[in-house]
Design brief:
795 residues; six-stranded antiparallel sheet; 19% strand; 29 strands; alpha+beta
Length: 795
């Protein structure tokens, strides 16, 4: 079937851009005609088998972009992981959808789509046609609406559970002990079957419309079989006349199963709500209102209405609503939610403050710099939410298994019924019915579907509370394989704040002259050492000399000409023999040396000292105790690097490594078969962090390099590395144990339900017991995941 579609394109500068895109797209299989409209910035094409993600990838590979919309739509009414998979399958088949991932635990779908091809209303309609309710993200009080809908759903389950329980107790007692008449049992069981079981029927019928089956299909089929057989025995006992089948009743079986499955759902939903407490705590840090200057007066408005450049008044004990700069006032600020430091920071005019932190005493006036989703707090929340919505590779495998699970169980239950009916002992129909219902009910894949996402949501949420932001589920699996941890030295193992400690003049120069020349040269550099020299020069009110032809030599230093003499400041490839005694004594003190040269003759040495962080030694020792090989990478010379490496007791180190060469050192380790976690500051070390199997970016809470690593430590504290590794391993182990118990439950439960023990021990599993164990298996998996909320790091 030939289709015509349009895709928007941004980034085209001229008509030749359009022609290049046209030419490239014509090579894609399935496209018959393509036309790029440069003025309207879109591509129109037609074809019979159009692969839109492939077209988008091709356009982006040419240096242009396809504008898309990313959105999370909350979904109400999913009962199990099969529901999530059904929605996912339906959405992915729609034109214009680039990504559609349903998170059963969070009860939402993450979408990326092209708005010119498909609208959110179309997507919502497809999901609603499947039998689920979809909330509109543009609604006012959207967050409250989600909570309200979830609460209503929980109340509905609770009400159906309560009424089912009221009727199930007398059905159970009347069937086994009190021997009620069949008619009384019918009237007691019917409300349970159709009111209590309504949710299962609704979901199963919706699935049937699309020729699909889910967990509710299994429950509905099993309980309905037992109920209808009992109704036949109650009202038409003559039907069994002339057969060796007695009209027995199974009302107790159907009602107990429905009641216990409802109980499982209720406990499961309550537990699922608890999994999001970490993210809710983060969201609660965002103030709802802000006092903003409008005209001559300050007015209280919603934080969402604050715009960049607004002047904001923050009174004592109030949370700061935006990221900004203090224009007026002085106060102590509690930044523990970002930095983890309990001691408040004193801040005044010119200092930066951040959304969610608390102004403890003084009155502040703040100029808004970052508002809404751009604030550090919002970025952290967004990162955590995205990570919680991702799927680990192990989860994708589980999804594939679950995809064939329900049809397989339906086949197994039918085979079980036939085997018992034709080859079982008399009355064979009774054994056939019991085993048929038991297999249908016990084989629910709910525990399997909950095993991974519940652990992910709780684990990633807990890590955020500890100042560790894990970017995605796949990272947990990678961490489990890491055997080597390598640290960048400056700013990671050390404070990163070098201080000028010695100025040694040579060749008849004076200290002041050395510092003046160094100050004048380093004003042209952004290197941390250069900044320290400039700060010292400004502190001493030094005058800058007029330099010509100044240029920076990356990784080495800066050179310039003054009075026809070439001056250079920076590192030397080899130290002259006459200076080795001086330099060796300085290097023994772990000092970093910078040399000042005049026409290639050394006229001065400047030494700088950077202290190790207090926790560096503790963290490295702990990592070694945990079984990791620990290394260090630095631009320092071999002598300095060796002294620091020995002090820290690292297993190996790389010295004299230029920033651009750090990546190659990581590659060297990987070629030796090492699985490497690189710890760096997240900015200068970005290429190496990306190359490593796991990149851990150490932030300061105030300037988080979110794009740099797989894991971001929001606190400038290396103990976060231990917390990240410990919690990631604990989370992944929880996933593995959850999956183990979910699989074992089904592997053992299905054969027992089918009656495999009967020939040997005369044991047959009662369908009621199957229903109870099925419900408890889901509750067990969620409860096991919730244990991660109580995780406490070792240091």
């Amino acid at each position: 079937m030939v289709r015509r579609l349009e895709i928007p394109i941004s980034g085209m500068n001229c008509i030749s851009c359009a022609l290049n895109i046209e030419k490239a797209l014509r090579d894609i299989e399935g496209i018959k005609e393509v036309k790029v409209n440069f003025p309207l910035e879109k591509v129109e094409f037609e074809g019979d088998n159009i692969d839109i993600p492939k077209i988008k990838e091709k356009i982006e590979s040419l240096g242009y972009s396809v504008p898309t919309i990313r959105i999370n739509l909350p979904i109400i009414g999913m009962s199990c992981v099969s529901c999530a998979r059904r929605i996912e399958d339906a959405i992915k088949n729609l034109d214009g959808i680039l990504k559609g991932e349903v998170n059963f635990i969070k009860e939402e779908i993450y979408l990326e789509y092209i708005p010119s091809i498909i609208s959110v209303k179309t997507i919502q309609k497809v999901i609603k046609d499947l039998g689920y309710e979809v909330l509109d993200p543009k609604k006012e009080n959207f967050e409250n609406e989600i909570e309200l809908q979830k609460r209503r759903d929980l109340i509905d389950i609770k009400r159906r559970l309560f009424i089912s329980l009221i009727f199930t107790i007398p059905v159970f007692l009347g069937s086994i002990f009190l021997k009620f008449s069949p008619l009384i049992l019918f009237f007691l069981a019917t409300p349970v079957q159709f009111y209590g079981g309504y949710r299962f029927y609704k979901s199963a019928i919706s699935a049937l419309k699309y020729k699909l089956a889910n967990m509710d299909t299994l429950v509905s089929l099993g309980t309905t079989s037992a109920y209808l057989y009992s109704v036949l025995a109650t009202f038409y006992p003559s039907f069994f006349t002339g057969t060796n089948i007695s009209p027995e009743l199974y009302y107790d079986t159907s009602t107990v199963i429905i009641t216990f499955v409802l109980l499982g759902r209720y406990l499961e939903n309550k537990a699922k709500n608890k999994t999001f407490q970490a993210i809710k705590k983060l969201i609660s840090l965002k103030p709802e209102t802000a006092i903003v200057k409008r005209g001559e007066n300050f007015e209280e408005i919603l934080t969402e209405e604050v715009i960049k450049g607004d002047l904001i008044l923050v009174k004592p004990s109030m949370r700061i609503p935006v990221d900004g700069e203090i224009i007026e006032g002085f106060s102590s600020i509690d930044e523990s939610m970002l930095t983890g430091e309990s001691v408040p920071k004193e801040k005044g005019r010119g200092d930066r403050v951040f959304a969610g932190t608390i102004n403890l005493n003084g009155v502040l006036k703040i100029k808004a710099e970052k508002v809404g989703s751009d604030t550090v707090l919002s970025r952290i929340i967004n990162l955590v939410e995205k990570a919680q919505s991702t799927k680990a590779p192990i989860q994708r495998l589980v999804d594939k298994i679950a995809n064939i699970f329900v049809p397989t169980v339906l086949s197994l239950s039918l085979i079980t019924f036939l085997l018992w009916y034709f080859f079982g002992p008399q009355p064979s129909y009774k054994y056939a019915l019991i085993t048929f219902v038991s297999v249908l009910v016990i084989a629910c894949p709910c525990a399997l579907g909950l095993a991974t996402p519940t652990a992910l949501v709780v684990g990633i949420g807990r890590s955020a509370q500890l100042g560790v932001l894990i970017k995605g589920a796949e990272i947990l699996e990678k961490i489990d394989k890491v055997d080597t941890v390598i640290f960048d030295k400056t700013g990671t193992l050390t404070e990163g704040s070098l201080k000028l400690s010695d100025i040694i003049p040579l060749n008849n120069y004076k200290k002041k002259e050395i510092l003046e020349i160094a100050y004048s040269l380093e004003k042209f550099s952004e290197h941390p050492i250069a900044k320290r020299i400039v700060e010292e020069g400004e502190r001493l009110n030094l005058e800058s000399i007029s330099l010509e032809n100044v240029r920076e030599i990356p990784g080495f230093g800066v050179e310039g000409i003054f009075n026809e003499k070439k001056f250079f400041i920076g590192k030397l490839e080899s130290i002259p023999p006459n200076l080795r005694n001086i330099t060796n004594s300085l290097l023994k003190e772990s000092k970093t040396l910078i040399f000042l040269l005049e026409d290639e003759k050394t006229i001065g040495i400047l030494s700088f000292q950077d202290k190790l962080k207090e926790e560096s030694k503790t963290v490295i020792k702990k990592l070694k105790d945990m079984g990791y090989k620990v290394g260090m990478i630095t631009g320092d010379n071999k002598s300095t690097a060796k002294i620091i490496a020995e002090e820290l007791s690292v297993d190996f180190y790389f010295s004299e490594v230029l920033p651009e060469d750090k990546l190659e050192k990581i590659k060297e380790l990987q070629k030796k078969g090492k699985k490497v976690a690189m710890v760096g500051d997240g900015i200068n070390d970005a290429p190496a962090l990306s190359q490593a199997d796991i990149g851990i970016a150490v932030g300061s809470g105030t300037d988080i390099a979110i794009e740099a690593g797989d894991i971001v430590l929001t606190r400038n504290d290396l103990r976060g590395v231990i917390r990240a590794l410990e919690l990631s391993k604990r989370t992944f182990n929880t996933i593995k144990w959850n999956l183990f118990w979910a699989f074992i439950y089904n592997i053992i439960g299905i054969p027992i339900s089918a009656g495999i023990l009967y020939p040997f021990f005369r044991i047959l599993l009662n369908p009621m017991i199957a229903g109870i164990s099925m419900a408890l298996s889901s509750v067990f998996v969620v409860s096991n995941s919730l244990r991660l909320r109580r995780f406490n790091p070792s240091i």
